[in-house]
Amino acid sequence: xxxxxxxxxxxxxxxxxxxxxxxxxxxxxxxxxxxxxxxxxxxxxxxxxxxxxxxxxxxxxxxxxxxxxxxxxxxxxxxxxxxxxxxxxxxxxxxxxxxxxxxxxxxxxxxxxxxxxxxxxxxxxxxxxxxxxxxxxxxxxxxxxxxxxxxxxxxxxxxxxxxxxxxxxxxxxxxxxxxxxxxxxxxxxxxxxxxxxxxxxxxxxxxxxxxxxxxxxxxxxxxxxxxxxxxxxxxxxxxxxxxxxxxxxxxxxxxxxxxxxxxxxxxxxxxxxxxxxxxxxxxxxxxxxxxxxxxxxxxxxxxxxxxxxxxxxxxxxxxxxxxxxxxxxxxxxxxxxxxxxxxxxxxxxxxxxxxxxxxxxxxxxxxxxxxxxxxxxxxxxxxxxxxxxxxxxxxxxxxxxxxxxxxxxxxxxxxxxxxxxxxxxxxxxxxxxxxxxxxxxxxxxxxxxxxxxxxxxxxxxxxxxxxxxxxxxxxxxxxxxxxxxxxxxxxxxxxxxx
Length: 498
Hints:
Layout: E1 4-7, H1 12-23, E2 27-32, E3 47-50, H2 63-72, E4 77-79, H3 89-97, E5 101-102, H4 107-113, H5 116-123, E6 132-135, H6 138-148, E7 152-156, E8 166-168, H7 171-189, E9 194-198, E10 204-213, E11 218-231, E12 234-240, H8 247-264, E13 268-277, E14 280-287, H9 294-301, H10 305-313, E15 330-337, E16 353-355, E17 362-366, E18 381-389, H11 392-405, E19 407-409, H12 415-422, H13 425-429, H14 445-456, E20 462-465, E21 494-497
Parallel strand pairs: 1-2, 1-4, 2-3, 4-5
Antiparallel strand pairs: 6-9, 7-8, 7-9, 10-11, 10-13, 11-12, 12-15, 13-14, 15-18, 16-19, 17-18, 20-21
Helix pairs in contact: 3-4, 6-7, 11-12
């Protein structure tokens, strides 16, 4: 078998996987679309192939072109990364038929994890689940919801990533929500199956990282990750360990995760996601792939998750046992998106300057450089900033320093948002939930433009003139989430750009 691997993805995850491959003497190969001809991930692969198109449906979702590239580049393995085809059971099966090793679960496993109804049914044998049912039509949905009671949430039965999710608080909202959920599910996943479950108001979102070697019945966990701070069901900040859990709670949730994966007969790396409220955990779903936020787990455990994926896929097994896992310190990840930090509207464009922070315990996964033009066809995630320190307090302080010295000019980014969020006393005290962003103190559009400019557009610092009081902090250091704190701009008459 060839010791060459095709990383069937784009951007920073390709670079991250390629680094581990080179350490293991596996030759990383890549693909790119017409829109990614100048992507940095190409330079991190020994061999690459253009698979055409600009839209995902024309390139990174084309199984035939990816398989063709693997054969022409003489690769024996395929790593799907995350997103795109990473949880597609058909892709896994075709790889197997073509004699390629798919670095991830089998088709059988992914058919279970990709079907939320089936996954819930299996998980319910060993874990609490939120009450929920598949619904065939609006009338069926109405009858079931009336018996469950509002609020409820509609979900795509065969999808994820926040697509197809609709919260319904009354019968008047049901018709539009049901049709919208069903249509988005069909467009995004090729399936109009929808299920409804009781909606938990303002829970916490906690997931457990699993490594599993099904052949040797060795399943271990690498601890949990707190993923509660989200917007439109998209994660923005993650940390580990979760500040919400006691040692007893941590033991309980990790044991539940292993029990669920054992029932599924899971293999390779995966994540079990839970909702947590009032001291109780409820199974939500399984992500049958490596997660965007995996670096914070690597930071506290010292385990190379991609390396373990490759070891399992190559038949060398999982060398780690549970007693080998010793977590140390606290890690936080901020997902930096090419978006306006107030409206979160995506802003593709050309990066003029790129200066990442440099400090011990700081990791940046990215595919950026000055002069790079961010395409408009893909996800707006452009970098992941990971900070690890001895404890949570030190980790927050290090992250704020790193964010403040991180310069990406030419486009707006969510860096100012992250600084503000980490300055909020709810985050500092670890008592936040999924309503965190919804409760932010909104700024006007004019103030938003100023705020966005401070760290994203202007190349130099801002000088504040005629302040009514002495202020020695960037305005974003004053949280716009705490409603009882002064408004960030209350103390300024105007600003002057340098």
